[in-house]
Amino acid sequence: MALELFGHPFSSYTWKALIPLYENEIAFTFRNVDPGEPDNYAELARRWPLAKFPLLVDGERQVFESSAIIEYLDAFHPGATRMIPADPWQAVRVRELDRVFDNYVMNVTQTVVANAMRPEEHRDPWGVDRAREGLDKAYAWLDGELAGRSWAAGDAFTLADCAAAASLFYADWVQPIDDAHATLKAYRARLLARPSVARCVEDARPYRHYFPLGAPDRD
Ligand SMILES: N[C@@H](CCC(=O)N[C@@H](CS)C(=O)NCC(=O)O)C(=O)O
CB of 21 within 8 A of CB of 66? Predict the structure, then answer.
């Protein structure tokens, strides 16, 4: 039975799970939870009451949380691009960077985006300022950390790059990475040029009008 992935083409965490599926050409059925396809969302919510996406279904098994999905794919549907290095220390470094991209880039970006979707009276400018400061700190640290590397943790494309691609794509829309952070900027460009990531960007293009801050005319 083919794998199924519940998610949305414009969702950063969905991209994170799609990238390894595309990298390793793993067959799967995409269950788009867009409001235009309410049955898919209803099935997601039945399976996972928090209704967060992505959710992977593999026969009798289901896996939620994008990092766990990638770990699962690497263990049970491995391909040429290994998402978790065999070396235990390298594996720790990859998981550490995965957390950095999710917690300090993606989730912080989502704070700014979610604020823009609220009614005016519930907006939180103080929280948005803190989120933007957090992004600046993360950019500065990543710019130094990534120096001399092709991918997040070294020469190999891993779980950390799946998290980075999804998070840096949208973070740069919210808070552009400035030229002083040339290493990080070049890394984002390298990610977007990777076919698995480029496919996510293209498939999400029809949904850009969903972006509450207004999608920039680039990428
Ligand atoms: N930590 C989760 C985050 C999942 C998440 O927040 N996904 C967003 C879409 S990018 C979502 O489900 N949004 C709908 C909602 O929060 O109800 C993961 O890594 O999968």
Answer: no
111 lines ligand 1 (CB under 6 A): no
Question: For all residues of the chain together, what is the average pLDDT?
Answer: 97
Q: Does 128 contact ligand 1 (Cβ within 6 A)?
A: no
- Give per-residue burial for 122-139: e unless 16+ CB within 10 Å, then b: eeeeeebeebbebbeebb
Q: Burial level of 168, CB count in 10 A (0-12/13-18/19+)?
A: buried
Ligand 1 nearest-atom number relative to CA 13: 10
Contact between 64 and 44 under an 8 Å Cβ cutoff? The reply is: no
What is the model's pLDDT at position 2?
87
What distance in Å separates the CA atoms of residue 170 and residue 105, rounded to the nearest whole number?
A: 9
CA separation for the pair 206, 203 (Å, rounded): 7
Cβ–ligand 1 distance for 13 under 6 Å, the answer: yes
Sign (positive or negative) of CA dihedral 66, 71, 75, 80: positive
- Model pTM? 0.97
Residues 6+ apart with CB under 8 A from 96: none
What does DSSP say about strands 55-58 and 61-64: parallel, antiparallel, or unpaired?
A: antiparallel
CA proximity to 204, closest of 178, 161, 169, 171: 169
